[in-house]
Amino acid sequence: MIPQSDDSSSQRRVSRLRSRAEKRSARTNEARAEKNVVDRESALKRSNAHPDSFLAHLNLKPIWFFSAFAALVAVLLLPLEGGLTPAGQVALAVLAFAVIMWVTEAVSYTVSSTLIIGLIAIILGFTPGTGLEGEADPVGTSNALGYALAGFSSSAVALVAAALALAAAMQATGLHKRLALWVLKLSGEKTSHVLIGAIVISIVLAFFVPSATARAGAVVPILLGMVAAFGLAKNSRLGALLVIAAAQSVSIWNIGIKTAAAQNLVAVGFISESMGIEVSWGQWFIWAAPWSVLMSVALYFVMRWSIKPEVDSIAGGREIVAQDLAKLGPMTGKEIRLVVIAVLLLLMWSTEGILHPLDSSTITLVAIALLLVPKIGVFTWKTLEDLVNWGTLIVFAVGISLGSLLLTTGAAAWLSEAVFGSLGITDMPMLATIALVSAFTILIHLGFASATSLASALIPVYIALAASLPGAADGGLGFVIIQQFVISFGFLLPISAPQNMLAYGTGAFTATQFLKTGIPLTVIGYLLVLLLSATYWKWIGLV
């Protein structure tokens, strides 16, 4: 007969072994789930691979590549005029090179950014009489490299890295998809209600997912799934209506929330460095959210006017969404932890400078550190490596470096005077100045597929221009902020923003359909900028 104590001990051992096996199985399943997420995201990127600019379609990349270097040399050989220093001339030459590279995509953004680092280090390093205070003559490549890499030390780059990691956490857990499905479940089955749901999803996700592409990637497949379940082709009018609305809503709320898009952080970084003004998350929201709310309402009516769907309701729409939610299963512990951290992060962002002294970059980095801690966090570093496009950080940092060089050398001020001085902008009323420069920004954006690159090129010039505007509040802060809003206008063409290209890659709509919605949205957005400049923004002291 086996003693009872031995039997109990054996049962405990079996229980411990079973518990360990279950934990190993859970860890294996989690690792498999994370790998599946990474594989799906990689497949999505491949399926939506598409030249990002119109000029990239023309197969003229070698010509554009050499044209960029020709422009660089041409600017360097121009005689110095109007007080432009040799260092400023170098900065303008590299800017000309960068703009051609960015607009034509002769090489990828990451490669062109690496080339920019080398060009600044070599050309500035060997240029005599640069006019840079406290520097040797010539500066030398080591010191010049410091200017080329200055952007990498910016807190804005740290915030972008943390924001990309937060978006990756949403993707790794599938929480962004669950949030989208919850909103659609509440939307009902009428086409007009589903359209509202598609817009609201983008608004909700903008607060928690600091990546426009990730937000579009969460919403678009769900909407297309609903269209397919109803028996319509994905390129039906219903598919075009919902997918275009989702992409345009993402662009609208890129403006409404500071952390929703990288280009906002470029502008904030330049403002902090050059104007000595820190723009908090809450301040940005107070300034920009009213515009985005009004544009969201306009988007609904523009979409209803421009694209008439085949049906007025999606029969069984609730069941389709319910089935997708059932496939996700109950909320996991990781999702719950991510919700808690994301909500706390949002509260910390919105009370920055009011209830606590912590800046957005520090807050977000601490949150990401928590998300990576075993047992507390929601994903591993390996998953983070696979989900984040780290080349984005290089492009972002180099853009800041180039913009800082333009400001430091006085090239931005010289260029501002050369472009806008002859038009007598500094003598115009502020509203007229905003109207003229905003129209210029919208036109320039047609050549750029990246709003981040556009902000890197234009914001330093606009900061210099703002300093010359008489009577501008806070040294022209409002003028610069408003131009940053306009830089984020990505409404006109599929190539105007990455989220547009992701949506366009699904084949749900044509470029003509997108343009049909983009023209009225751009006009309405422009008029709203002027209206708010004359009213709300003036009343709160921004303009």
UniProtKB/TrEMBL annotation:
Q: Transmembrane region positions?
A: 63-80, 115-132, 144-170, 191-209, 215-233, 240-261, 281-302, 336-355, 361-381, 393-415, 435-465, 477-497, 517-537
Q: What is its main location?
A: membrane
- UniProt-annotated location(s): Membrane
Tell me which UniProt keywords the record has, alphabetically: Membrane, Transmembrane, Transmembrane helix
Record GO terms (molecular function): transmembrane transporter activity
| Region span, Disordered | 1-44
Quote the cellular component terms of the Gene Ontology held in the record.
plasma membrane
What membrane topology term does the record carry? Multi-pass membrane protein
The cross-references to InterPro entries, in alphabetical order and at most eight, read:
CitT-rel, SLC13A/DASS
Q: Where is the composition biased (Basic and acidic residues)?
A: 19-44
Chain intervals with Low complexity compositional bias? 1-12
Homology family? Belongs to the SLC13A/DASS transporter (TC 2.A.47) family. DIT1 subfamily.
NCBIfam families reported for this sequence: dass
Which protein, by its recorded name, is this?
Anion permease
User: Which organism was this protein described from?
Assistant: Brevibacterium senegalense
**Organismal lineage:** Bacteria, Bacillati, Actinomycetota, Actinomycetes, Micrococcales
